[in-house]
Amino acid sequence: MTKIAQLEKSIKKLDRNKGPLIPLLQQTQAIYGWLPEEALRHISEALDIPLSKVYGVVTFYSQFYLKPRGRHCIKSCQGTACHVRGGKNVLQALEHHLEVSEGGTTKDLKFSLDTVACLGTCFLAPVVMVNEDYYGDVAPKEVPKILKNYE
Ligand code: FES
Predict the structure, then answer these.
(1) What does the DSSP 8-state code read for residue 105?
(2) I need a surface site. Which of 22, 99, 136, 137 has the fewest CB within 10 A?
């Protein structure tokens, strides 16, 4: 089934009495991996909501992405516990090896790199999360080995 057909199916299943926009945007992002303009236009027309309002909601919530994301999502913790234990150096090592800045996605769409304020595992500081995997007590020199797990 094409992505637009999957989106169409999600639109048909909507309960229009329950503020359908955010759930539909979440489903759309699950289908595409991000929110392309084509899909947002389709949603705008299907729900009869101005495109500007759709964009307003998308840009308000940090969970939505207007650019393609990498297949693997890296979160480098920059919270206090991680910061004092060298989290910044780990982030710099990630940026160096991936050749992207924080918030960016590699050209091959393999990795996206983000920072977070705490991953809830401060005792493991500094912490990096790749998809659902936690890496604790990370040293900058360990970054290539961690990334190799996702090659
Ligand atoms: S500050 Fe990094 S896990 Fe809590």
Answers:
(1) B
(2) 99
* pLDDT of the chain, 151 residues: tens digit per residue: 898 888 888 888 776 666 789 999 999 999 998 999 999 999 999 999 999 999 999 999 988 999 999 999 999 999 999 999 999 999 999 999 999 999 999 999 999 999 999 999 999 999 999 999 999 999 999 999 999 999 8
Q: Which of 127, 134, 137 to mutate to test the pocket of ligand 1 (most atoms within 8 A of CB)?
A: 127
Reading the block at residue 29, the tokens are 């992002």
Give CA torsion, residues 85, 90, 92, 96, to 10 deg. Answer: 160
Taking a C-beta distance cutoff of 8 angstroms, is the pair 113, 100 a contact?
yes
Pocket of ligand 1 (CB under 6 A): 77, 79-82, 118-119, 121-122, 125, 127
Q: Where are the domains of the chain?
A: 3-60, 72-148
Q: Assign domain 72-148 one CATH number from 3.40.30.10, 3.30.460.10, 3.40.1410.10, 3.40.190.10.
A: 3.40.30.10
Pocket test for ligand 1, best of 89, 122, 129 (most atoms within 8 A of CB): 122
